[in-house]
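Sample intake — RNA-directed DNA polymerase
Collected from: Meloidogyne incognita
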Amino acid sequence: MHIVDINGQSIRSYGVVSLPANRQNTLPVDISLHVSTAPFGSNVIVGTNALGALGFKMFDESNLTKIDFEHLDETEEEMTQVTAVFKTVLAPRSTTLVPVEINGKYLTGKEAILSSSEKENSEFHIEPGVISSAQATSTVPITNKLSIPLELNKGEGIGKLEVVKEVIEAENTLKLGNTAFVRALNLTSNEIHDRQNQIEQEAKQAIKSKDGESIRKLEEAIGVYSDIFALNDEELTQTDVVTHHVETSDAEPIKMRARPMPYALREKVAAMIQDYLARGIIRNSWSPWASPIVLVPKKDGTVRFCVDYRGLNSVTVKDAFPLPNIDNTLMMLGNKKVFSTMDFMTGYWQIRMDPDSIEKSAFATEKGLYEFLVMPFGMTNAVATFQRFMNRLFEGILNQFVFVYIDDILVASNSFEEHISHLKIIFERIREAGLKLKIKKCCFLAKELPFLGHILTQEGIKKDIDRVKPILEFPIPTTQKKLQSFLGFMTYYRKFIYEFGKIAAPLFRLLKKDNKIKIGEEEKEAFETLKKKIAENVVLYFPDFDAAQKDPKRMFIIMTDASKLGIAAVLCQPTLEGKIRPLYFASRQCNQAERKYAPTELEALAVKFGANKFAQFITMIPTRVLTDHRALVPMFKKKGETGNLRVDRWIMELQSKFILLLEYNPGKNNIVADVLSRNFPETPEAMDQIKVGMITQKEPEKESFVNREEWVEATEESEMRALVQFFKERILPDDPREKQQTLAYAPFYTLIEGLLFRCDQNTGNLHLFVPRKFRQKLIEERHSGVCAGHLSAKKIYMQLAEKYFWNNMRADCSHTVAKCRICAYTREPRSNQPGLKTVKTSEPLELVCLDVLEIGRSRAKNRYILVCVDHFSKWTVAEPIPNKMAETIARAFVENFILIYGAPKRIHSDRGKEFVNSTLENIT
């Protein structure tokens, strides 16, 4: 029996049972029920026919009309026939709106339910519904169940009617809402039992946990949601949430002939087509479009049926819906402890084609033309459609605990209990969408599992060794195509290989357009080094963003390195125990221009590259940057005033986007080298010797004249004594004003071994508070000390402000410098800069001013304009010229100015090369 729901969706049931049912105080009536595990939302769903037999009425809430059903006697059937008005052809396996005529005066003016005849019709099916017999004709949706066109003759009987009788009052009224879509299987009770057992067995294999309670809860959940798991292709269903549309604009249909098919595969292809027809995957087509099929053999000896849609794809308007970034997705999994992955059963085929696009999916075979009713593989926008559907399906929870890349679903949680709850949410959404998972490809409750070519663990990600093994046996490439394959694979895992760009540079050079593949010693070394690096068991740990923001000891660290070949950066983060662990490796080659940079510029470029590469991690988070290039540290302190325009520009760019704390990392403590060898320091001692550059959390150096005990004592007696007392004893002053001031200052200060520091909120620097008795000595030491140079008050203030602070520091510096006698005796008097002289002329042609203006290439291939202006009269001549060569300038000036107006006495220009040359001098 072929069953469809109200939307024309094919229905399969496990079987039909006849059960006695009765309303209270009434005799039992036998009703037929289909058995299914589909998500109805209730244990039993009763149809309108059964409700009518039981004497119930349906209450339509929208208009408060109560109706019941009155079945017509068999003798009245001839008066309630519905027949076709015209001769109509029904397309195969599709629904067509057919005009029908209602024959029977008995129904005039009444509402009636249209349904198929009790005698099963194996050719077509009528969608049940209420129609009005007030008019003699109506339109009815009829589904052709055959794979060939079906013809309905004029006057041919189609179905029968049941009268709807209005009732003013009725007892036992039952309110009916929307029922769930019925997607069941036509199975016997034994087959139902076998299927349930098979799902249980598959689930046991898919569950990777050893926690008994978690296993029990998940098995219960899988039992409740067993309808979302498909065991074979026959259980495949389609969702109604989205359809795949192919937009070709005004393009003419593309028709390609069927390709010759190997004789040995003809029977297999014919069987596959018949199977697809029977399952409603494809149908016969009369489309003007046609694409050829392609048969791809699988490893198990079967054949994959594909369609070559390259012709269609060439005229399809591309869908720019973005795919998730795999690296970003993986880095979102920090602190997750339990993982599950799920895969759809032929995911593309669970999405219907848009009715307007079905004909464009047509494909030609030796047997005829067919078209897909579901989204086929190979269409250019299929991936975008599926990803958009996944984003919509998991809206609100996406990238929180569910992560999706096309049809690969990952669920990640912090505990088993939380994970079971998350899985139930996912199962429910999949059920609501009417989708099916392939349980054989699912993996549940794992602490470590493969995902997108990586191995996910509780600590981080590793390379999937099974994916890496083939590349370890890769022979030395002899063609550019083979080399591209090798480098393409290595590039996917480049985040695991420090200085990948530098190592692979010799191989990438062979990919240039005119280069021939010539493997020398340098290329062989690069090839073998990459294979060695890819085999290393490197773990990239998950970032802890909360710790990076709240704990200064666990800030993100970027280590950089640079050379003429390439630049590299490593993103790291210390653990609670102080171990520095890598999160991400990044590198690239230097281009031709960058290879000419000075060492300092290359090191600055590496910092810029690392910061931008790791922007997703470090934006708005203070980050330490370690460089082994000492000269770079003071350049970052000057904030764009280094004298190197290129480095200045990079520094200003970085400071506007990130909070970078640049520090010098001596060569003997080169942790980047440790990263390269994968030997990270077990303790932070190695970091202790890092000298402070731009920003540090370390205590500033004391001046030579300072006694520590005296400094601490003076701090306790200074104007900051209330704050010091609060830090030492947690006691607030009695005075309300001082109490309020102390509480306001406390978040920005800290006390270290009796010394008071203020933390700069913008940079993170610690500035030492200077008691009043040491301020004058400190300024004099910097201004007129043994190593001082009697600098200005502004420069003295800038030097002191890097390490120290006190109120009115700038004014104290100015006052001390102003009293310096040596400065007063040796200071040169200020002299005014001479102003510009006014150019005066008394007659025309006394002075002519020339300049060249660039305007871009015109249709006449002119790129510049020569402008000639007489200084006295302001007479201007502008002449377009193709270039700025001396001969071109001279010719244009002579022909368009001198020959017309005469030669000038003097010529004024900006002394560019086009004006200062022998050619123009000879003319003048």
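Post-analysis note: Confidence is low (pLDDT under 50) at residues 6-10, 59-79, 164-186, 668-702.
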